[in-house]
Amino acid sequence: xxxxxxxxxxxxxxxxxxxxxxxxxQASQVIxxxxxxxxxxxxPYASEKRIAFLFGGLRAxxxxxxxxxxxxxxxxxxxxxxLSRLQAANGAEAIFAxxxxxxxxxxxDARIARRLNVTWVGSPAIHPPGSVxxxxxxxxxxxxxSRAWKALPAPGPGSPxxxxxxxPSGLESLELPDMPIPPxxxxxxxxxxxRLDDFVEGEGTRIYGYATGRNRLDQDGxxxxxxYLRFGMLSxxxxxxxALRAIQSAPDADSRQSAEAWxxxxxWRDFYLHILEHFPQVRKENFRLPHLAWRNDPQDFxxxxxxxxxxxxxxxxxxxxxxxxxxxxxxxxxxxxxxxKDLLVDWRWGxxxxxxRLVDGDPASNNGGWQxxxxxxxxxxxxxxxxxxxxxxxxxxxxxxxxxxxxPELEGAPEEYIxxxxxxxSEIQQAAGCRIGQDYPAPIVExxxxxxxxxxxxxxxx
Length: 462
Hints:
By secondary structure, the chain is α/β, with parallel strands linked by helices. The protein is 48% helix and 6% strand.
């Protein structure tokens, strides 16, 4: 084969790229193309910060391709039409691409495959959907899924970045739009590799403290790799291989347990990709408890969105999300529980709000996390699990460092009141420069009462 197209979607990398490797194996020239799909760019779930991160990663990929004799081609429009034009103009005989598992992607890809010669290779998952089944049926509970996942052969290390990626001459390309990059996440494969190395092998070997450090909002205890996994700037297989290597090399039982905990999170990511593939209706419907009586108060939702609920951990996390496009996973569970259970607002409202802001917003993981916390999902948290935003703050941000960072109006509050500032006597409020109800809101609900209300509503829905 003379020329093939590598259609880039969620695999913005050269290392361990199965679609690229297949194209290079079968063709002497490869055209790497990314198509800006207007339907995705203008979707109600689109995020400017996430798009900016993606475009930054594509620029970095273009630099890597040019170092190897190739280049990135950028087109805008309907993928079917743009691929057809590119194929006809360059005599490309085949298209190689990694499958995607969202409902829109599957409809798009099925339509294109009926007309064009597309070879699907690999998956955003470590073990692709369809490979972890029970008597031919998909798992809907995580623990047995995880056992079956671990019983499969370990993923291979993957191929290194190719040294040469020849492309036809005279290729025309659009310029990628210039958008402000989210400062917490420099985009690109090189940064993803640096972060992975730092997490599993760097000073302090943070993966060996992950089991406890991952829950602390005031510590650097997570890998911060989720945006890179979202767009395949890092292969999930490579991440799993690194986790397995860390497990085998762990110096003690606690370290091994921590490395296993991180691998478990990667398996959760696979689980939600599998769920979305097998049950695409989860994007729009409760998997369980279809008749929950949501309150859906617009004022409550607005207070949650803007970080004005009166609960400092919730508000700090929501303001962090708005300003940076990221939120700690522990905080995600707390704010999701507060919205769906304390306020009884439909999880779909929160799911969309997150997708509109998160740099790492992923249709499968975001949906799975929201339905888990709301108690409506495949492997749902018990309906009576309702996070207490005060005790969660005391446990996971004990000195209130995260709260003071994102809620400057509470910066002067004494530590004993930082998680429940409404309890401050008036003279302490005065001294702290934070009058409750004026400088910072009083709680919009009383948690104990809201908890009881949620238990009643969920009890009726069961």
